Amino acid sequence: MDGTQESSEERGTGPERREPAFNVPTALVVMSAVMIAVHLVRTYLLTPEQDADLIFNFAFLPARYTHPLADQGLAWLWSPVTYSLLHGGWEHLIFNLFWMLAFGSPVVRRIGTVRFAVFWVMSAVAAIGLHLAAHWGDLSVVIGASGVVSGLMGAAARFVFSPSGRVSRQFAHLNRRLGILEALSNRSVLVFTGIWFITNFIVGIASVFAVGGAPIAWEAHVGGFLFGFLLFGLFDPPRARR
């Protein structure tokens, strides 16, 4: 298995494997293209009024759920997912794309395109659900794929680390999935998870006091991560469960 191969390479007795510098699953290429296309349209084709209308209908607004759903359009139905395709600027989009490609690649290689599509939808809902619980009735607008990316990070934490603690970009998806308790006792997983939570908490708190910047929906990040970490087993194909 992967861990044995890595151990042999570390001793210098096994064949050297060369990992491609760029090898991204097609599903991630498509999602990246969709998010880039959406932002291009918003930036260069829509008027400010049209863009505001798009945000109102496809971004997530906690205040929307304090009003009777029958008295409004259907944005309350699809916005818990479509908000993940919108971004506040190129920096926001590029940041999410980078981490999505880094952590999404082993997840997609492991679970496949269809399961990935379902994972995207459910992690987006789970992420924004925790944000909604913390900001019920708030008038703020939430956009960005950060919650889904956090979900991919949480899912990846269940299997990407080999017994040696290393991560192979190309072969990490072949590792055995750790049980939840087993993962929580794994040093590599604990360090990764601890750094992730501390970083998100600091960034989230700092954004509240930043002048001129929009607060970061760090609760959505936590919701996404917990979803991916705790429920990844539901998406793991039977052939990948060892």
Summarize the structure in words.
This protein has 242 residues and is mainly α. The protein has one domain: Rhomboid-like fold, CATH 1.20.1540.10. It is built from nine helices and no strands. Helix 2 packs across helix 5 and helix 6 packs parallel to helix 9. The N terminus is likely disordered.
Descriptive labels:
242 residues, Rhomboid-like fold, disordered N terminus, 9 helices, single chain, globular, mainly alpha
CATH architecture: Up-down Bundle
Looking at CATH, the homologous superfamily is Rhomboid-like
Which of globular, elongated, flat, extended, rod-shaped describes the shape? Answer: globular
Instruction: Outline the biggest β-sheet.
Output: none
Spans of at least 5 consecutive residues with low confidence: 1-17
The percentage of residues in β strands lies in: under 5%
Report mean pLDDT, rounded to a whole number. 88
Q: SS-based structural class?
A: mainly alpha
| Rg (C-alpha, Å) | 19 Å
Query: In which range does the helix fraction lie?
Result: 55-70%
Spell out the helices and strands N to C. HHHHHHHHH
Number of helices: 9
CATH fold-level name:
Rhomboid-like fold
Total beta strand runs? 0
Distance between the termini: 11 Å
**How many separate structural domains?**
1
CATH C-level name: Mainly Alpha
